[in-house]
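Lecture notes, part 5. Sequence design as translation. It can be helpful to think of inverse folding as translation between two languages: the language of shapes and the language of residues. The source text, in structure tokens, appears below.
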């Protein structure tokens, strides 16, 4: 009877997890306007879908293509391309949550720790943000969690099938983003769980080395599919924008470490919060020697890439650390398990949970209802909501242009040839053959002659995103401006006046 009851309880908890997950990730999925990078990825997916020659289009900007390919697959099933793109992240987040459950169970041998990890991911504000945006970083986290899980299985079971699956996972991470290479770089640390000194350990170590070599070769073969494109070299060029190449780093190895570390730490605590960090420390130090190597492995998966990013980072954003923070959730879950076993009484557990998780729950509520006031790091809030990379006003401009195009052909000029303009407009208007969109950058002192010529034959509009005022002397009439979030940044829509 006890087993039956336990099984029924687990089924009920799983049902609740799935129900709350899909509710929290799907409700008002388009609440945040389309962000610059989302517009780029979705537009790439639209182009790649219709032209096989452009399946590697993301390499033109040095980005790996897997995330774009996944968007491309599901685009035909949804009217709103933004919803299609964000659904890829929703599914990736669900797979991440399942992976955390299995990883925690495997490392600590307790199913309840696995459920706690899954529930933590459910309410983790960092996860809530990136599970609801069409960005690569949620998928990077998915591959990281599952790579760690299969690395643990590999070192414990030493089986070829596990190595082959792990090779595919590591290769998938590499095809998503360059940070996916950490899944391979951290593979040797799984030897912390190796049965050193036990009978036959030398033969087992040799077998692990062979299997690890298979993982490495397989992942590199998968990654090598990108070499089919002549744009493969663009990846290293793009990486040098965000991280210092070794030759440059040697000239100033510690100059930016302090500032980078502080910025990354502030972002980490901004999402993780101090109460949860204290619980994490509790999971780490309580019964310190019990499952010590498992704890160290999880900690290394956070510390090693965090320090590497602080050392080599040139341009940093909070989303870069998302995948590495996921390895801390099983330790937080372990700390919660210790706490619950100590408190025992249900009412004490409920009160304690409300106190500890109040900050997370409040932020989750804000993100799902009014993200403009959400207590998340300003770097993310500015990008996604309040500054020029945010998509505020795009929907209104698209609606206006669609309505105007019903009367006949129109021409739309945009400030910029890459990014929110013109891509965000093209995402929604590429099927409207009455709308011609052309980007211009950089803007000169005089309005482009092409725009003036077209304005003589059909209605012509100019959309400004970064510039907060149209250049002086341009023959433009302001139609409307749209505020981005709660800042002082606007998207401007003008009509070109045919003098």
């Amino acid at each position: 009877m006890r087993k039956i009851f336990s099984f029924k309880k687990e089924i009920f908890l799983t049902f609740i997890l799935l129900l709350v997950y899909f509710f929290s990730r799907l409700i008002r999925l388009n609440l945040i306007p389309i962000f610059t990078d989302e517009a780029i990825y979705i537009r790439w997916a639209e182009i790649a879908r219709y032209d096989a020659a452009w399946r590697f289009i993301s390499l033109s900007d040095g980005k790996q293509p897997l995330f774009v390919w996944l968007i491309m697959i599901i685009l035909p099933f949804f009217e709103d391309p933004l919803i299609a793109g964000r659904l890829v992240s929703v599914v990736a987040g669900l797979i991440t949550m399942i992976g955390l459950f299995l990883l925690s169970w495997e490392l600590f041998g307790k199913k309840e720790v696995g459920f706690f990890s899954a529930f933590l991911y459910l309410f983790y504000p960092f996860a809530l943000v990136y599970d609801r945006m069409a960005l690569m970083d949620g998928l990077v986290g998915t591959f990281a969690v599952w790579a760690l899980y299969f690395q643990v299985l590999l070192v414990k079971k030493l089986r070829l099938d596990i190595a082959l699956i792990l090779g595919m996972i590591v290769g998938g991470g590499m095809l998503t983003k360059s940070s996916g290479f950490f899944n391979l770089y951290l593979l040797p640390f799984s030897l912390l769980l190796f049965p050193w000194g036990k009978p036959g350990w030398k033969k087992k170590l040799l077998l692990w080395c062979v299997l690890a070599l298979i993982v490495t070769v397989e992942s590199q073969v998968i990654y090598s599919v990108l070499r089919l494109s002549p744009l493969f070299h663009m990846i290293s060029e793009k990486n040098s924008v965000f991280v210092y190449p070794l030759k440059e780093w040697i000239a100033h190895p510690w100059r930016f470490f302090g500032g980078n570390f502080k910025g990354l730490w502030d972002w980490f605590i901004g999402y993780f919060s101090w109460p949860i960090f204290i619980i994490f420390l509790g999971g780490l130090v309580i019964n310190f020697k019990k499952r010590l190597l498992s704890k160290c492995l999880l900690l290394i998966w956070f510390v090693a890439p965090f320090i590497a990013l602080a050392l080599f980072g040139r341009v940093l954003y909070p989303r870069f650390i998302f995948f590495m923070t996921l390895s801390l959730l099983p330790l937080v879950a372990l700390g919660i398990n210790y706490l619950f076993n100590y408190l025992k009484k249900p009412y004490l557990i409920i009160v304690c949970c409300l106190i500890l998780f109040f900050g997370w729950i409040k932020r989750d509520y804000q993100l799902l209802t009014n993200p403009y006031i959400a207590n998340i790091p300003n770097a993310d809030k500015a990008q996604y909501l309040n500054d020029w990379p945010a998509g505020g006003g795009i929907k209104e401009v698209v609606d206006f242009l669609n309505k105007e195009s019903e009367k006949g052909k129109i021409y739309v000029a945009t400030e910029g040839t890459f990014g929110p303009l013109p891509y965000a407009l093209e995402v929604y208007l590429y099927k409207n053959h009455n709308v011609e969109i052309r980007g211009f950058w950089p803007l000169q002192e005089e309005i482009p002659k092409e725009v003036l010529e077209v304005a003589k034959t059909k209605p012509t509009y100019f959309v400004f995103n970064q510039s907060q005022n149209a250049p002086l002397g341009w023959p433009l009439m302001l139609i409307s401006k749209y505020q981005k979030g709660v800042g002082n940044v606007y998207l401007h829509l003008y009509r070109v006046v045919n003098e």
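The translated text above is only one of many valid answers, since several sequences can fold into similar shapes. The first helix runs from residue 2 to 26.
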